[in-house]
């Protein structure tokens, strides 16, 4: 398994390539912009894209999807149903992503031999998910290094955010945290230093 990060767009969204090099396939996670640059990275990786995985529906995480599907029309695009205009999300912030497959808590998406588990982690948006694959946690705009995502946009909820953060903090073991913005971290480091994660963990502990 190999993970590559590209910062794309005006607010430097982290787009990730999750590659199963043995199988020669990859998933593109949160292609928010600069589809041409993302496609070039996919081709350079030597892996064919098998899926686009979206942690949530905000425009800065979905902006490159249409162009990528123009290049690879057959690849499925996964998004939680709650983050769609059909469920009331405002289209300016949550632009429609045609042809999506909706995934939810407990679903698994296979990328070659890699199993990507879907965790519903609302708070930043109603449909925010985190994606767990082996020892890597793609946390979208839920968990950041030392911080958490904002909750003042449509569908945001601070109590849900804290519960989602607590759930991530209480996962067994350590994981590399690959967030939607800024630098990577580790879950063990966030358990020690992140005040929002620590508060969420306290909320959920008996």
Structure overview:
This protein starts with a strand and ends with a helix. It has a six-stranded mixed beta sheet, with helices on one face. Helix 4 crosses helix 6. Helix content is 25%, strand content 31%. Strand 11 (143-144) and strand 12 form a beta hairpin. It has helices spanning 35-45, 59-62, 65-71, 158-169, 187-193, 195-204, and strands spanning 2-8, 13-20, 25-29, 48-53, 77-79, 100-102, 108-111, 114-120, 129-133, 136-140, 143-144, 147-148, 176-179, 185-186. It is an alpha/beta fold. The protein has one domain (2-204): Metallo-beta-lactamase, Chain A (4-Layer Sandwich).
Outline of this structure?
The protein is an alpha/beta fold and 206 residues long. It has one domain (2-204): Ribonuclease Z/Hydroxyacylglutathione hydrolase-like (Metallo-beta-lactamase, Chain A, 4-Layer Sandwich). Helices cover 25% and strands 31% of the residues.
What strand order characterises the main sheet? 1-2-3-4-5-6
Largest sheet: 6 strands, mixed
CATH topology: Metallo-beta-lactamase, Chain A
The count of DSSP E runs of length 2 or more, i.e. the number of strands, is: 14
SSE string, helix = H, strand = E? Answer: EEEHEHHEEEEEEEEHEEHH
CATH class designation: Alpha Beta
- Structural class designation: alpha/beta
Kindly report the average pLDDT value: 97
Which value, in Å, is the CA radius of gyration?
16 Å
């Amino acid at each position: 398994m190999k993970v590559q990060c590209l910062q794309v767009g005006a607010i430097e969204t982290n787009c990730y390539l999750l590659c199963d090099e043995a199988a020669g396939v990859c998933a593109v996670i949160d292609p928010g912009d600069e589809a041409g640059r993302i496609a070039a990275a996919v081709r350079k990786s030597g892996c064919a894209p098998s899926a686009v995985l979206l942690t949530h529906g905000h425009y800065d995480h979905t902006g490159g999807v249409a162009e990528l599907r123009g290049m690879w029309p057959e690849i499925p695009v996964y998004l939680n149903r709650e983050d769609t205009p059909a469920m009331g999300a405002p289209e300016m912030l949550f632009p429609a992503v045609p042809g999506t497959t909706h995934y939810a808590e407990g679903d698994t998406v296979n990328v070659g031999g890699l199993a990507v588990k879907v965790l519903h982690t609302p708070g930043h948006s109603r449909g925010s998910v985190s994606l767990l694959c082996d020892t890597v946690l793609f946390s979208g705009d839920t968990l950041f290094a030392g911080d958490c995502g904002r909750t003042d946009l449509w569908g945001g909820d601070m109590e849900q955010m804290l519960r989602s953060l607590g759930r991530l903090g209480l996962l067994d073991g350590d994981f590399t945290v690959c967030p939607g913005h800024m630098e990577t971290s580790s879950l063990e480091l966030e358990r020690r230093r992140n005040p929002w994660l620590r508060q969420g963990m306290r909320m959920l502990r008996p």
